[in-house]
Amino acid sequence: MMRFLLLGLLFCMVLPARAWRGEWSCLFWNVENLFDCHHDTLKNDYEFLPDSERGWSPWRYWRKLDALSRVLAAVADDEGDWPMLVGLAEVENDSVMRDLSRRSPLRAAGYQYVLTNSPDERGVDVALLYQPERFRLLEWHAVGIPSREYGFRPTRDILYAAGLVATGDTLHVLVVHLPSRAGNRRGNNAHRRLAVERLRQAVDSLAGKPLLVMGDFNSEASDRIFRLLCPPLTSLMPRGRAMRRARGTYVFQGRWSFLDHILCSEALLPWVDGRAEVVAYPFILDDKRRPWRTFLGPVYRGGYSDHLPIRVRGEMD
Question: How far apart are CA 172 and CA 209, in angstroms?
Answer without folding.
Answer: 8
